[in-house]
Amino acid sequence: MAVTTGTPWDLALDQGKHARPLYSGRAISARAAYQRALYGRAVLVDLRTDDQRRSHGRFGPALTAVTVPPRALVTWLVRRNTTGDVIVISQDGTQADDVTEALADVSLAQLTYVPGGVAAWRSAGLPLE
């Protein structure tokens, strides 16, 4: 019987060889996402619904951020006029993780996501309006 401590390392090892990793290599911390969006090195793509943005806060105008519905993300990626990284964020990070996983092989952009989503953003003390 294996003993697990509940740390991310133990949880990742316990998932088995065919399970998705706890966090993929496409994950970026909320603080790193904030810095990259603040200085224009990446676009922060908010996948949340209008209700979620009203309830949990919006990203301020100081950030390079856009709101894109999940179904329109591929079209937005194809039509955008800029290059550079795209950081996808959702309310709890699950939807953003799923989207980056699904688009990993498409190569439309360097996609990353924030594990924990806006909840992690708020927990890190980062600004929301």
Give the arrangement of secondary structure elements.
Blueprint: H1 8-14, H2 30-38, E1 42-46, H3 50-56, E2 65-67, H4 73-79, E3 85-89, H5 94-102, E4 111-113, H6 117-123
Parallel strand pairs: 1-2, 1-3, 3-4
Account of the protein in words:
The chain has one domain (23-123): 3-Layer(aba) Sandwich (Oxidized Rhodanese, domain 1), CATH 3.40.250.10. A four-stranded parallel β-sheet has the order 2-1-3-4, sandwiched between helices. The protein has 129 residues and is α/β, with parallel strands linked by helices. Residues 1-6 and 9-23 have low confidence and may be disordered. The N and C termini lie far apart (49 Å). The protein is 36% helix and 12% strand. It is built from six helices and four strands, in the order H-H-E-H-E-H-E-H-E-H. The protein has helices spanning 8-14, 30-38, 50-56, 73-79, 94-102, 117-123, and strands at 42-46, 65-67, 85-89, 111-113. The radius of gyration is 15 Å and the shape is globular. The longest helix is centred in the first third of the chain and has 9 residues, at 30-38.
Write a concise synopsis of the structure shown:
The chain is of the alpha/beta class. 36% of the residues lie in helices and 12% in strands. The termini are far apart.
- The share of residues in helices is 25-40%
- Strand order, largest beta sheet: 2-1-3-4
Please tell me the overall pLDDT: 82
CATH level-1 class: Alpha Beta
**Distance N terminus to C terminus?**
49 Å
Binned strand content: 5-15%
Structural class: alpha/beta
CATH fold-level topology: Oxidized Rhodanese, domain 1
CATH architect. name: 3-Layer(aba) Sandwich
- Number of strand segments: 4
> Low-confidence spans: pLDDT under 50, at least 5 residues?
1-6, 9-23
The helix tally amounts to: 6
For the sheet with most strands, the description reads: 4 strands, parallel
Return the string of H and E elements: HHEHEHEHEH
Domain module tally: 1
Integer-rounded radius of gyration: 15 Å
Judging from the principal axes of the Cα atoms, what is the shape? globular
Instruction: Provide the CATH superfamily.
Output: Rhodanese-like domain
